[in-house]
Amino acid sequence: MTEILQPPNWPRPKGFSNGTAARGKLVFIAGQIGWDEECRLRGTFSEQVGQALQNILTVLAASNGRPEHIVRMTWYVTSKREYLDSYKSIGEVYRGLMGRHYPAMTAVEVGALMEDGAKVEIEATAVIPD
Question: Of the CATH numbers 3.30.1330.40, 3.30.465.60, 3.40.50.300, 2.60.34.10, which one belongs to the domain with range 23-128?
Fold first, then answer.
């Protein structure tokens, strides 16, 4: 079970939670980029986000985990402007895969990722209930 931590005097954030608390089996998922199972990387920013999230969910499923078990994500993006300009389509892709589950998240703009052409890399931590 996951508990969302929201200080009472703070406004509710959009698209993420300020904190989460959970108990169970910890699953740490390495940074995933928007390539498919054959290591093909292509698509728009939001398409790469969708593939990266799908990759996270595939790794998580190997431990019998589901999207609602994710408690934290860190997003590394190569362009803050492209991220913000794609915000609506990212939201649609996100909700299509994750539903309305919004773990604690951080987004950081970086100069580049290790794979040429990658626009986003997402790492995740999940807690699967006992």
Answer: 3.30.1330.40
